[in-house]
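Run log // design_07
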């Protein structure tokens, strides 16, 4: 079985006081087994996004400690910033990376939510896959009116009742906790300070206004430029390149150009590869044409050490046929399943790029990017987790 790895990407309503951000980061890294992968602070948004991974129990504990520290150090009554927010720790999403199901992540989110409500007395709302009400699935619904509206309405409007914790807010506000699939946080800056143009483009491209599926977008002014701030929630079905080109087309309608773009946090490798393939028109591209992937795949060090009775060991079949109780049916079934998944992957790759199979290419791409397929293959194939499963 793959080693359980959980990712957490919390957003904190602070970026202008580095000492506060450092204190929150220290709370996270104080938990053994947790690796802090990335920090992104935006002064205009006055918001910091941290990314960390580790075993589920350690990641949950690190998230709890960071929420507690942020509540001590951040006062939303004094907070200003371009980005919508309702809490000192505004949102805490969990993403299963390996050895975990989405339902596992949902249970972790709900357990943390109850603990934050009971022990820290912070109102908690559950969202995305962990949501207990359909209308709370989307984060924007929970943030409507921001902290100021929440402060006025909580306790009087039943729709504002939290899933856990008190029915009133302190200066730490409320926290939204949930489980979701990997997403890309991506911002495009326009060569203008006219924020109304960014707002119009955001309205055109976001799904809630009739735009692209799996795109959430807002227009705002950041660093003197009109910015389109986005979350791309399924880059396989709505590719990054398609989003960029639609923004470029809409910007041209208003006589402006794209100035630059930025990522917030980390991006799956597959999303960058997809964009490169699209822009370079590499219709016959195969993933093993990437030098690093080919190199790492060929190195002996990429294979887990073989042990007696392991499928990596030449004597696996002999050990399976022996009178010993292990390895047994479970190992044989898992190895057979991994081999079958490998053949499915092979057929999908042989199909992609062939003109006569163009009508099923999207299905083949979906098969290749299915985490369940990789979850079957990887424990038998290598000791590393592919970057496209990490977001």
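design_07 sequence
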């Amino acid at each position: 079985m793959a080693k359980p790895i959980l990712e957490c990407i919390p957003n904190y309503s602070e970026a202008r006081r580095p000492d506060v951000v450092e204190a929150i980061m220290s709370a996270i890294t104080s938990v053994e087994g947790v690796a802090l992968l990335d920090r992104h602070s935006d002064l205009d948004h006055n918001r910091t996004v941290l990314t960390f991974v580790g075993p589920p129990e350690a990641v949950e504990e690190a998230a709890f400690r960071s929420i507690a520290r942020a509540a001590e150090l951040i006062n939303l009554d004094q907070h200003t910033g371009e980005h919508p927010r309702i809490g000192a720790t505004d949102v805490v999403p969990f993403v299963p990376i390996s050895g975990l199901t989405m339902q596992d992540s949902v249970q972790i989110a709900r357990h943390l939510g109850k603990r934050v409500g009971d022990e820290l007395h912070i109102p908690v709302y559950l969202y995305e896959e962990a949501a207990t009400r359909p209308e709370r699935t989307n984060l924007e619904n929970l943030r409507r009116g921001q902290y100021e509206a929440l402060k006025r309405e909580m306790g009087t409007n039943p729709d504002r009742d939290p899933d856990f914790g008190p029915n009133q807010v302190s200066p730490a506000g409320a926290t939204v906790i949930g489980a979701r699939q990997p997403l890309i946080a991506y911002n495009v800056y326009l060569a203008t300070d006219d924020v109304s143009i960014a707002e119009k483009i955001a309205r055109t491209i976001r799904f809630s206004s009739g735009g692209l599926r799996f795109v959430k977008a807002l227009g705002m002014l950041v660093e003197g430029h009109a910015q389109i701030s986005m979350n791309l929630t399924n880059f396989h079905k709505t590719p990054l390149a398609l989003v960029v080109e639609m923004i470029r087309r809409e910007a041209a309608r208003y006589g402006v150009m794209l100035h630059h773009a930025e990522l917030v946090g980390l991006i799956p490798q597959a999303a960058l590869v997809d964009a490169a393939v699209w822009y370079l028109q590499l219709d016959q591209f195969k993933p093993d044409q990437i030098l690093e992937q080919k190199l790492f795949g060929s190195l002996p060090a990429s294979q887990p050490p073989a042990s007696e009775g392991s499928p990596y060991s030449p004597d696996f079949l002999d050990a399976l046929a022996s009178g010993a109780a292990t390895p047994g049916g479970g190992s044989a079934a898992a190895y057979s399943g991994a081999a079958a998944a490998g053949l499915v992957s092979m057929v999908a790759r042989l199909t992609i790029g062939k003109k006569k199979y163009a009508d099923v290419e999207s299905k083949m791409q979906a098969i290749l990017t299915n985490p369940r397929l990789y979850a079957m293959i990887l424990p038998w194939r290598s000791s590393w987790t592919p970057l496209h499963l990490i977001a």
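Residues 302-313, 376-391 have pLDDT under 50 and may be disordered.
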